[in-house]
Amino acid sequence: MDVQFASALAGRSFPPGEVWLVGAGPGDPDLLTLKAVRAMEQADLVLHDALPGRAVLRHVRGGAEIVAVGKRKGAAPVPQAKINARLVAGARAGLRVVRLKGGDPFVFGRGGEEALACESAGIPWRVIPGISAGLAAPAAAGIPLTHRGTASAVTFVTAHDETGALPALDWGALARTGGTIAAFMALSRLDELALRLIAGGLAPSTPVAIVAQATLPGESGLRTTLGTCTLDARRAALPTPALIVIGDVIGVLSERVAPVMGVIQHAGA
Ligand SMILES: C[S@@+](CC[C@H](N)C(=O)[O-])C[C@H]1O[C@@H](n2cnc3c(N)ncnc32)[C@H](O)[C@@H]1O
Fold first, then answer.
1. How does residue 268 score in pLDDT terms, banded at 50, 70 and 90?
2. SS3 state of residue 156
3. Helices 80-92 and 111-121, interaxial angle, to 10°?
4. Could you say which of 30, 78, 177, 212 is the most buried, measured as most Cβ atoms within 10 Å of its Cβ?
5. What is the pairing mode between strands 45-48 and 97-101?
6. Ligand 1: which of 33, 48, 51 to mutate, most ligand atoms within 8 Å of CB?
7. Can you tell me whether residue 77 is helix, strand or coil?
8. What are 106-161's pLDDT values in tens digits?
9. Which residues pair with residue 105 across a beta bridge?
10. With left for phi above 0 and alpha for psi between -120 and 50, is residue 56 left, alpha or beta?
């Protein structure tokens, strides 16, 4: 056993003056890692996104300052530069700073930008990985992202670039991989996404699953196709956050996501 692994098992203590970018997982507090819980228990300052809810935040040490910096309804989001500055200022003041982010900090979470800000300010930082919604939402819906003979690749994409538009990806190449596509932040961009993938060669009958609020009490889902997903999603008025899964892996296992709209049926339910 190497030294690094031993220290990971023991649960490294959190030195003052460091910033830890902590993944809070998809929402269910039981899906937090032990390291994430230990970080919250030691933190002096926690800056959190909108996704980690009260059940997750209850692990934060009493007396620690908790600041919400995520997008809130009716309120302008805190600019990234301001969040970066707050992380650096907190660490410089000798605080143990946790930046708590939904899912995994390095999957469409701007964790890289925050780590860079720490690096350029000379602040020690580390990342505590979390279970990304890209893994948790398909699992909650009983959809294997890969399946021998059905999908040998999986691609995570975002439907929002830094300007809010659909990213300038080679959607045709993506369509031709024959693998599964898991799209983040895509519910409001479903029409464009579906059109690009169909133009790229995917059949309108390609299965699509929309998994909303995965692992949270409001977990729900919709099974549809690329050709009809925009209309079906509009009719179903699914809540956010939602992950879109595209590919033949949908339906490999017994269906947990109802054809039109329904609560995800868990085994034994
Ligand atoms: C800014 S991204 C953050 C992703 C996060 N870093 C991760 O690894 O899951 C937010 C998007 O993640 C997805 N997402 C996050 N939590 C989710 C959940 N509980 N159920 C479904 N999708 C979720 C949605 O696509 C949402 O728009």
1. very low
2. strand
3. 40
4. 212
5. parallel
6. 51
7. coil
8. 999 999 999 999 999 999 999 999 999 999 999 999 999 999 999 999 999 999 99
9. none
10. alpha
Q: Report the separation in Å between the CA atom of 23 and the middle of ligand 1, taken as the mean of its atom positions.
A: 11
SS3 240: coil
pTM for the structure as a whole: 0.91
Alpha carbon of 133 to ligand 1 centroid (Å): 5
pLDDT digit string, tens, across residues 245-264: 999 999 888 766 654 444 45
Residue nearest to atom 21 of ligand 1 (CA): 242
Query: How many angstroms does the Cα of residue 26 sit away from the middle of ligand 1?
Result: 7
pLDDT-above-90 percentage for the chain: 83
| Residue with token string 């600041």 | 67
Atom of ligand 1 nearest to the CA of 109: 6
Give the torsion through C-alpha atoms of 31, 33, 36, 38, to 10 deg. 120
Q: What is the pLDDT, as a whole number, of residue 73?
A: 65
Question: Which residue segments constitute the domains of the chain, with CATH numbers given?
Answer: 14-128 (3.40.1010.10), 133-246 (3.30.950.10)
Q: Whole-angstrom Cα distance, residue 13 to residue 26?
A: 25
